[in-house]
Each structure stands twice: as structure tokens, then as C-alpha cells.
């Protein structure tokens, strides 16, 4: 399958790389999002070709049908959901990983040592012990499944794995804040514990879960004959950026003998900054931690991580003793333990390279500056909104998330949710900027989450000006 003419593929490769670097270097000059046209969607529904095609033609299709219609998160005015921006160096690392085509499930080769090094750096960042174990995964959703699998195993080591949930001494119950991400519930569903085994504890939009309410709930469940086994702390809730009092949760878990897991999907990035890290106090006591590198650490998608304090329990949850997975002292089969011992996958890509390259190139301090800058930008935006008669802050801003409504001007008879939804759609469809939405106190709001190293103050000013303009436009249209 190798090309007959390597010089032609070399030429095409260089040209492609030039195009990609050109596109990325002026990304802010293009729309923040471009909808995929119907004819492109139709072409992307064609069946698989039976015959080979010229690579240059395939690249032409790629440049025509795929490249222009990206998610948009590489754009300076992408503020939707929680998406990282990526870096050119990380993208080049992906290219290298593609060329090397490593399988990092196991065996003895450089990629394994790179992932170990990266896991060590991350464990150190969060104050985890040097011998804690970890694994790079697709994202926090997957990391949460693996962490809660280890937590479940801790209930009756060995037995849980063999017999399933029936080996537990009672119905296992997990606790998390009202604002916890849905991935926690999904993990419990997948582990056969049932989504209803998750107790949602009331939370504040800034300080997160109420520790007193948590403890009461645990005691009540125990008295009812249930088996509380895990508390999931949230470091950066998806809707408002709330951070639970992790030290208080660690203390409750220690007193009640519960597993303490933390979802630090994006808030974990605060650990980079000496100024912001104290807000995560207590994270170092967690039994397990799930977080993303593809969010606020700007590693290109996808890259998440699970860290586990007890490497033996982690390994015992996933390792499998089979002849075809035998380890040796020498040769390719050396290098024990293998990453497949710490998760369900045997074949795994070289995710670690883009993490390694991003962290090596930019260094923790520069990444920290970006996190601090985004928090300052969010605070500035929140102040502008609070000072304006056109807007209304839907929740306090304590991190990088600003939730607000555009006020419906007097005289216009439009429902506020409908009004704000229309503003959001016009912003996105015109490619001006991409905030997303949230529901707070039963009302739809525009949600700006800034995890974007390309965003400048001017981008936020442009966003506010555009909303103001669309606001007038909708009202004029309605009153016309
Ligand atoms: C707080 C929180 N937890 C979990 C997730 C899920 O992470 P991922 O999309 O990487 O699976 C997100 C995603 O935004 C999140 O914000």
C-alpha cells in the first residue's frame, strides 16, 4: 500500500501542511462557525468506494468538504460548552503519532515511557503521590467511568470483579452536587449501579455542594440500610464553574470511609496557577481524579486523564492474566506494567505525545497565564454585563463562565427564552461568535465559557456589540 512515488506524496504532504498552518494562523479572520452545506452532507453520506482514488483527489475533497466546517473551537470567539483551543505544536505531534502508529496498550517502546512521564507530571501537579497510577483516555467522561470502576472495586476487592454488584454489602450509593456533570450518572449506569443510585446534593453556583447537606444525606441513607460508597466532588461545574469545598468533602469521605473522586474536567487547570490553585485545596486527598487536557490545557482533542491514588487497586480492577499478554524480562514483551493493566482497552493510540509536546513547548507557567487571563476576561465581561441595562447576569461569575440574559426591551412582547435563543442562533449562524446556552432558575441564558487562549478583550467587546445589534434587530422585526 505504500506509494510508488514517494516524492509525490512528499509534495502533497508539504502542501497540506502549508495550507493547515495558513488556516490556523489566520483563523480569527474567518467565521467562528460555518454550517455544513446540504450538498456536503450529501457527499458525506456516499457509500465506501471499492476502487482506489488518487491521494491528491482525496485531499482535494478533504479541503473542500471537511476542513472549512470544523467545530469552531480553534476560533478566538468560541465560547461554547467547554472546549479547548489546541495548539499548532500539539497538532504537529498528532501528525508524528500518526506516522509512528504506536500501540500504547503495552510492550516496551518509547511511547510507553512518554505516557508514564506525562502521568507523573500530572500526578505531581495535583499533589498526588509519586507512585499513583494513571491513564490517558478520550476525556473526562471516560476517566470517570474508569475511576468509579476502581471505586466500586474498593468495596470488595476481587469479589466485585468476579461476581458483579451482587458482591456489594448493599445498594451502593454515590453523592454529587446538583451541578455535577451528567457523565457521573452515565458512569454509574454503565457500571450497573443505576442512575438512581446517585444522590444529588443541593449546590450553590459559586461554592458548590453543601457539605452539611451531604453528610445528612449519607447518614440518612445508612440508617435506611443503603451502602454509601463514593462522593464525587466537582471542581468547576459545567453551568457556572462552581467549585465544591474539596477539603470538606475529603474530610467527610475520610470520616465515613467513602471513596473520594473529583471531576476536575476543566477546573483542574487551576492547579497550574499559584494564584488560583488554593481554590482546589483538598484535591490532593482524592482517591481518584478525572480531568481533561483537551479543555483548559489546550492539548488537541481528544485527551483526558484518570489518576488513582492506589496503583495496586487500580491494576487489580483491570489487569488480566492471559498467555498472549505474558510479560518478559527482555524483548518487546518487557516494560511491565502495561497501560492495558489500568483500563479496559488493549489497543490504545499515542495520545501522550501531543500532551508531552504541548507541556514541553509551552511549559506550565504559560498555560497558567492563559487560565488566569481567561478568568480575568470572564470577570471583565461579567462586570460589563452587570453595568448594562441591556443585560442581566443569571449567576455570579467566579471562574471563567458568564451566564446572562439579554433583556427584552420594553414594548416588545417576546418571551425571554425565545428572545435569547434567537440571539444565540443568529450569533452562531452568522459566525460572529459561539456561546452556548444554559438553564438557570428555569430560564434560558446565554453562556460564555472562556477556555480559549486566542480570545482577546476585543473579541468580548465584539460579542457584546453584536448581541446589542441583534437585540435591536429582533425588536425592530417584531414591532414592524
Ligand atoms: C465538569 C465536567 N465534567 C465532565 C465533562 C465531560 O468531559 P468530556 O467531554 O471530556 O468527556 C465536562 C465537559 O464539558 C465537564 O465540564
Provide an overview of this structure.
The protein has 480 residues and is of the alpha/beta class. The chain has 2 domains: 247 residues, Aspartate Aminotransferase, domain 2, CATH 3.40.640.10; 118 residues, Aspartate Aminotransferase, domain 1 (Alpha-Beta Complex). The chain contains 14 helices and 14 strands. The protein has a 7-stranded mixed β-sheet, with helices on both faces. Strands 1-13-14-12-11 form a 5-stranded mixed β-sheet. The protein has a two-stranded antiparallel ribbon with strand order 5-6. Strand 3, helix 8 and strand 4 form a beta-alpha-beta unit. The radius of gyration is 24 Å and the shape is globular. 44% of the residues are buried. Bound molecules: pyridoxal-5'-phosphate. Pyridoxal-5'-phosphate binds next to helix 6. The site of pyridoxal-5'-phosphate has 14 residues, from helix 6.
